[in-house]
């Protein structure tokens, strides 16, 4: 036995006096990590203490109804946000909810007018402190574009969650109610602050920059090919955030006047590619062209020549890729410095298009500044 094995009485008392507050602190604050469930509102939270969540409904399959006579056919955007909320048991225990209908469309019809209305309503709700978080119900086809647009134009760090579903409300095993429940759960949680606009579907939480639809009809369709989900939410474990979202903006750009973004075309590259789609885009007044290139944002010689000519006319040319994952890198097989092109890095063509629109609307023309805008921080 060493002489330090038995502490003198004075030291024991000091250790005890130190240990009591430490243990009390540990008990009060455990579990305190990112996976703590205690922060989530639950069935015992008094209504007055529940967070205020504004639900903005836009339509989509989550609000869709099937025609019982038809196999597989359904119409999106048939039921209101209010009706949707009422169909989810327990939602009122998570938050004080207020629903507003912004549009009732399938998201294949999503447009600048609805985007601007959404952005203005969210900003107003936060500026006037009417809500602690926002949930947007949306069709899944263009959900990722709306998420990315809003992330770039809505200021602040209160949670903005976008949600949809793959099966209509009337389907057997509809995924909408569960997705909406989880979206409200995430929006109501203070740990969701400062993560930009986030998508919640099928138990996954994903960032606006990375999330993309990868399957036409399956409920397991949204993924983040370059970096994976930022967290998970489910009935067993509650909310778990694993990491921060890539390139969180919230926000960099002002909404341009006039409720319309500048025209930017996406040109899809393929074997035997000629310059016609590029010439068409220019003749229809495109202020920017995003190349959905092959591989690392490549395209054929005739298409490349046409893009170089476009850039010389002051049209913003962004090289993106039709490949689902990876980055498009400057000056590899294409001399971007010489041609005056910008590369999209990890942004897919549909999101690169949104960013190009915002940059053009903001009057940014300096090449280095344009390129910097496409570069994400992790
Ligand atoms: N699953 C869906 O939400 C797709 C339905 C519709 N095309 C939309 O995007 O709104």
Automatic annotation (TrEMBL):
Family matches, as Gene3D superfamilies: 3.40.50.40, L-asparaginase, N-terminal domain
SUPFAM superfamilies xref list: Glutaminase/Asparaginase
Binding locations of substrate: 107, 140-141
One record GO biological process: asparagine metabolic process
Asparaginase/glutaminase C-terminal domain residues: 263-374
Any matching Pfam family: Asparaginase
Class of the enzyme per the UniProt entry, highest EC level: hydrolase
Domain of life: Bacteria
Cited InterPro entries: AsnASE_II, Asp/glu_Ase-like_sf, Asparaginase/glutaminase-like, Asparaginase/glutaminase_AS1, Asparaginase/glutaminase_AS2, Asparaginase_C, L-asparaginase_C, L-asparaginase_N
Keywords assigned: Hydrolase
GO molecular function: asparaginase activity
Catalytic-site annotation from UniProt: 61, 140
Residue ranges of domain L-asparaginase N-terminal in the record: 52-242
Enzyme Commission (EC) number: 3.5.1.1
CDD domains for this protein: L-asparaginase_II (cd08964)
Family listed: Belongs to the asparaginase 1 family.
Name of the protein this chain belongs to: L-asparaginase 2
Organism in which the protein naturally occurs: Bradyrhizobium forestalis
Gene name linked to the record: ansB
């Amino acid at each position: 036995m060493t002489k330090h094995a038995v502490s003198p009485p004075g030291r024991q008392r000091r250790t005890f006096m130190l240990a009591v507050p430490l243990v009390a602190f540990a008990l009060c604050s455990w579990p305190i990590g990112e996976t703590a469930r205690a922060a989530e509102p639950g069935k015992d939270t008094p209504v007055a203490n529940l967070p205020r969540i504004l639900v903005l409904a836009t339509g989509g399959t989550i609000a869709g109804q099937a025609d019982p006579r038809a196999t597989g056919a359904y119409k999106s955007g048939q039921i209101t946000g209010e009706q949707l909320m009422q169909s989810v048991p327990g939602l009122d225990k998570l938050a004080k909810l207020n629903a507003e209908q912004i549009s009732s469309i399938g998201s294949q019809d999503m447009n600048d007018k609805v985007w601007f209305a959404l952005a203005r309503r969210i900003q107003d709700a936060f500026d006037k402190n009417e809500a602690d978080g926002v949930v947007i119900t949306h069709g899944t086809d263009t959900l990722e574009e709306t998420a990315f647009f809003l992330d770039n134009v809505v200021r602040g760090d209160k949670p903005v969650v976008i949600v949809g579903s793959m099966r209509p409300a009337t389907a057997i095993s509809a995924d909408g109610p569960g997705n909406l429940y989880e979206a409200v759960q995430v929006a109501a949680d203070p740990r969701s602050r400062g993560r930009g606009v986030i998508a919640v579907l099928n138990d996954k939480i994903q960032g606006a920059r990375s999330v993309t639809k990868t399957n036409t009809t399956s409920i397991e369709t949204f993924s983040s090919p370059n970096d994976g989900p930022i967290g998970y939410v489910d009935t067993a474990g509650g909310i778990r955030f694993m990491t921060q979202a890539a390139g969180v903006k919230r926000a960099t750009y002002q909404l341009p006047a006039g409720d319309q973004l500048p025209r930017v075309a996406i040109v899809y590259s393929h074997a035997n590619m000629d310059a016609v789609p590029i010439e068409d885009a220019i003749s229809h007044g495109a202020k920017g062209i995003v190349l959905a290139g092959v591989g690392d944002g490549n395209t054929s010689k005739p298409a490349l020549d046409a893009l170089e000519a476009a850039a010389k006319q002051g049209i913003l040319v962004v090289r993106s890729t039709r490949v689902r994952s990876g980055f498009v890198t400057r000056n590899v097989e294409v001399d971007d410095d010489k041609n005056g092109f910008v590369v999209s890095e990890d942004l897919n063509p549909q999101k690169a298009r949104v960013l190009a629109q915002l940059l053009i609307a903001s009057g940014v023309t300096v090449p280095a500044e344009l390129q910097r805008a496409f570069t994400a921080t992790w």
